[in-house]
Amino acid sequence: MSLLPAHRRHSLFPDLTDWFAGFPTVENVRPFVEGRLIRVEDETADGKYLVRAELPGLDPDKDVTVTVHDGLLTIKAERSERQETKGRTEFSYGSFVRSVALPEGANEDDIAATYEKGILTIAVPLVTTEAAEPKRVSITSVE
Fold first, then answer.
1. Distance between CA atoms of 54 and 118, rounded to whole angstroms?
2. Are 40 and 67 contacting, i.e. CB atoms less than 8 angstroms apart?
3. Which residues pair with residue 97 across a beta bridge?
4. pLDDT of 98-132, one tens digit each?
5. Residue 74 in 3-state DSSP?
6. Mean pLDDT, residues 48-52
7. Are 50 and 121 in contact (CB under 8 A)?
8. Listing from the earlier edge strand, what are the strands of the sheet with 112-116?
9. In sequence order, what are the residues at sequence separation of 6 or more whose Cβ sits closer than 8 angstroms to the Cβ of residue 56?
10. What are phi and psi of 36, to 5 degrees?
11. Residue 63, pLDDT above cutoff 50
């Protein structure tokens, strides 16, 4: 095996990946298939898994729903279009959704969510479990 960098040969035909360079990526197409995508950031800090979702201009009591089921945290939001606006708008309206897989050790029974200045923050406590010692399984020989 060589550790030298691979050199790309030049040919008359482009590489297969070059053929799709002008098409939108899967991330750009996904919102049209399953609703608009909510932008999130996540981190682990102070024994908690934190998810922050960008949801400006929403009423968290009426427009936002957070659910958790089988290790999957789902955020759904709905923004209704204002009817009195007759000009141009670049705001996104309609349904928004984002699901995030929770890390191992997440305590689904003690999740807290807060909404401040357009940012929804969800805190999921992490239960630290010590690595269990491997158990030796006895083998019975059948003859």
1. 6
2. no
3. 37, 76
4. 999 999 899 999 999 999 999 999 999 998 766 66
5. strand
6. 96
7. yes
8. 40-45, 48-54, 119-125, 112-116
9. 118
10. -75, 145
11. yes
Residue 76 domain-assigned (yes or no): yes
Neighbours of 36 (CB within 10 A): 17
Q: Whole-angstrom distance between the N-terminal and C-terminal Cα of the chain?
A: 47
How far, in Å, are 3, 5, 6, 17, 22 from residue 9 at the CA level? 18, 13, 9, 14, 22
CA separation for the pair 38, 72 (Å, rounded): 15
**Whether the Cβ atoms of residue 114 and residue 50 lie closer than 8 Å to each other:** no
Q: Which amino acid is at 26?
A: V
CATH number at residue 78: 2.60.40.790
Using the CB atoms, write b or e for 100-125: b if 16+ within 10 Å: bebeeebeeeebebebeeeebebbbb
Residue 63 lies in a domain: yes
Domain that holds residue 59: 36-82+90-125
Tokens of 94: 């309609």
Whose tokens are 């984002």? That residue is 98
Q: Cα 125 to chain center, whole Å? A: 18
Is there a contact between 119 and 55 (Cβ–Cβ < 8 Å)?
Answer: yes
pTM of the model: 0.64
Structure tokens at 84: 């009195």
